[in-house]
């Protein structure tokens, strides 16, 4: 077991930056320009159309947890370069760029926080760090988040967004799928709930491990979720992909996820579900 | 033993030497006379050159060359090994929900007299069989059948032997619609908690999540010329080098060969193959495998279930290389 002294870092709500830049942002659903600040102040969801723009891990945590309740842990766990990997540029150079561009130490932020008073262990992925890919460091952090839930006997929630396993760490990335799933086996055996939230996009090795192992699986509207990429499927099978293939709505229809939940309702919904599964009591009226 | 057929591109020098040897032998045979001292000397010289060429080529195989041997059409497949090292294999079909995946098969068998549960990815040899077995690319029902058999093994206390040989799980509309991700993920979790000894052997291709879906085991063995990778060298080359022709470079960079995997702690033992690959002597190769499997089974059998599960957890828990600084305060 690997339990560290927690490192304290408070994430404030309403801290905003990124994605829609400039004064106006085009809403992909309506095609209309929307005042960017209006989107930022609404968890990156377009108020009228409900389009979900990607949101950073820290920003998500800021909105999700009770005020100042989130305590980040294992922030010192960073990717190494075990294979000494170089393609068009060295992996270490890429890592530095991802850290600089995203302002994050890794593709996942972990810690504990409270949702309407209920303590949970959290792992939140961020697509901006190397496409949210799962390498050794991310796998380690997620495993520790699961082990924290186990040790503290609290529920675990993982928000996924990922292009899959990180190629630059080769087979060790694949092994993170086994490692995280093994930790979830122990969590399940202990009778502690795990809720997986799939956000745009969740694919490859992440979809084929912890992202799909939730006792309850939620997804954000419009999220792309799948094992193989659409291009690979087209090339391999020469089939035309049906409209809306691999969207959250497609998965719901096929019976593969429990609910599609708007980001604006996520905090309440997670609490409601955990009240039933973990507290086993109807929560007091807010 | 059958004469080896050198069909791979890098085996060209051997192919040419073989052709010369064949021609000379044929000419001698047709002349009806015993070979002249010159011919005998020439034959001997060619044989020596062939041996040294074999040593040169097979002694310095690149990662990409090993991938080609792992995919060799004559390479022994999973069920070849099962028939060589097990007795009384009884195939058990179907996932009880959707269908019977021919790419992923399993059933009970006797290994050195003891009952075991065999689960194997099998590619198929002739065109018709290859198609029936989807070229060894399982669909969700294959992984669900595997899980059913794992559960059966657990119920009756049988050790599980899995044979891995797949380019990957099948990428297709149907496969996605029946949730291949869930089928693989569930196997990863459930194999971690299986209360019987489990051993997997990568006999050919260890293609990513499709391989791992039956590969979370107490011991992972791999043949010398098999590979195990997060992505195919071609796929990696296409994404990172923007050029599928960079596959040899990608194969090298991914550290996907048996020796590299052993160094990374991902596999527990590398099983040697005859010079040139397992297809040069499947019987000998199977005998080596039988010995290794028995040894690992002997190690695992005496363990109490809790010891077995803790050791399995730790085996995967320690995999991965990362840096850790104390504070991490940004």
Walk me through the topology.
The complex is a heterodimer of chains A (286) and B (330).
Chain A: E1 24-26, E2 33-35, H1 36-40, H2 57-64, E3 71-73, E4 77-79, H3 91-102, E5 108-115, E6 118-125, H4 136-152, E7 156-162, H5 170-189, E8 194-203, H6 204-207, E9 216-219, E10 225-226, H7 230-237, H8 248-253, E11 259-260, H9 263-279
Parallel strand pairs in A: 6-7, 7-8, 8-9, 8-10, 9-11
Antiparallel strand pairs in A: 1-2, 3-5, 5-6
Helix pairs in contact in A: 4-5
Chain B: H1 12-31, H2 37-59, H3 63-70, H4 78-85, E1 86-91, E2 104-111, E3 114-121, H5 127-132, H6 140-156, E4 160-166, H7 173-177, H8 180-192, E5 198-207, H9 208-212, E6 219-223, E7 227-229, H10 233-241, H11 247-253, H12 258-263, E8 269-271, H13 282-300, H14 305-317, E9 322-324
Parallel strand pairs in B: 3-4, 4-5, 5-6, 5-7, 6-8
Antiparallel strand pairs in B: 1-2, 2-3
Task: Give keywords.
heterodimer, A: 286 residues, alpha/beta, 2-enoyl-CoA Hydratase, Chain A, domain 1, two-stranded antiparallel sheet, 9 helices, 19% strand, disordered N terminus, B: 330 residues, eight-stranded mixed β-sheet, 14 helices
Brief description of this entry?
The complex is a heterodimer of chains A (286) and B (330). Chain A is an alpha/beta fold and 286 residues long. Chain A contains nine helices and eleven strands.
């Amino acid at each position: 077991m690997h339990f560290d002294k927690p490192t304290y870092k408070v994430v404030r709500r309403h801290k905003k930056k990124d994605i829609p830049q400039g004064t106006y942002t085009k809403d992909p659903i309506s095609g209309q320009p929307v005042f960017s600040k209006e989107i930022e102040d609404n968890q990156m969801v377009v108020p009228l159309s409900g389009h979900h723009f990607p949101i950073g891990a820290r920003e998500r945590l800021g909105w999700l947890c009770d005020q100042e309740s989130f305590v980040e842990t294992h922030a010192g766990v960073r990717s190494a370069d075990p294979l000494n990997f170089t393609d068009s540029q060295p992996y270490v150079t890429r890592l530095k760029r991802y850290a600089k561009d995203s302002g994050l130490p890794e593709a996942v932020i972990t810690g504990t926080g409270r949702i309407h008073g209920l303590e949970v262990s959290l792992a939140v992925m961020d697509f901006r760090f190397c496409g949210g890919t799962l390498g050794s460091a991310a796998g380690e952090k997620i495993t520790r988040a699961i082990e924290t839930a186990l040790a503290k006997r609290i529920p675990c929630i993982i928000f996924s967004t990922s292009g899959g396993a990180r190629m630059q760490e080769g087979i060790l990335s694949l092994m993170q799928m086994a490692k995280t799933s093994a930790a979830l086996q122990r969590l399940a055996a202990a009778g502690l709930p795990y809720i997986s939230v799939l956000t745009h996009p969740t694919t490859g090795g992440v979809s084929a491990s912890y992202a799909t192992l939730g006792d309850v699986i939620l997804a954000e509207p419009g999220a792309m979720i799948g094992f193989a990429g659409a291009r690979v499927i087209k090339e391999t099978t020469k089939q035309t992909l049906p409209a809306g293939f691999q969207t959250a709505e497609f998965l719901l229809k096929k019976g593969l996820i429990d609910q599609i939940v708007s980001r604006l309702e996520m905090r309440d919904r997670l609490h409601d579900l955990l009240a039933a599964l973990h507290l086993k009591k109807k929560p007091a009226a807010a | 033993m059958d004469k080896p057929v050198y069909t791979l591109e890098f085996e060209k020098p051997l192919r040419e030497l073989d052709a010369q040897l064949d021609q000379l032998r044929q000419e001698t045979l047709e002349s009806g006379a015993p070979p002249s001292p010159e011919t005998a000397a020439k034959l001997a010289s060619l044989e020596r050159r062939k041996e040294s060429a074999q040593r040169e080529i097979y002694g310095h195989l690149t990662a990409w060359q090993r991938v080609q041997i792992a995919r060799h059409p004559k390479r022994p497949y999973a069920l070849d090994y099962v028939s060589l090292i097990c007795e009384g294999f009884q195939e058990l079909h179907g996932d009880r929900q959707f269908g019977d995946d021919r790419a992923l098969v399993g059933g009970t068998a006797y290994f050195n007299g003891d009952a075991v549960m065999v689960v194997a990815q099998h590619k198929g040899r002739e065109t018709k069989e290859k198609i029936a077995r989807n070229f060894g690319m399982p669909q969700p029902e294959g992984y669900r059948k595997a899980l059913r058999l794992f559960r059966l093994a657990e119920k009756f206390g049988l050790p599980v032997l899995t044979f891995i040989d797949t380019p990957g799980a099948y990428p297709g509309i149907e496969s996605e619609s029946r949730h291949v991700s869930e089928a693989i993920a569930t196997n990863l979790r459930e194999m971690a908690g299986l209360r019987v000894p489990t051993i997997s052997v990568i006999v050919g291709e260890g293609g990513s999540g499709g391989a791992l879906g039956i590969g979370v085991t107490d011991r992972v063995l791999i043949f010398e010329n098999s590979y195990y990778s997060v992505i195919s060298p071609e796929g990696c080359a296409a994404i990172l080098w923007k050029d599928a022709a960079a596959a040899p470079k990608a194969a090298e960079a991914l550290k996907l060969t048996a020796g590299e995997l052993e160094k990374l702690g991902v596999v527990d033992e590398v099983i040697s193959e005859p010079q040139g690959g397992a297809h040069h002597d499947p019987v000998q190769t199977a005998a080596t495998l039988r010995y290794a499997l028995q040894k690992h089974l002997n190690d695992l059998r005496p363990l109490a279930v809790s010891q077995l599960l803790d050791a399995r957890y730790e085996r995967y828990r320690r995999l991965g290389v990362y840096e850790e600084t104390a504070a991490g305060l940004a």
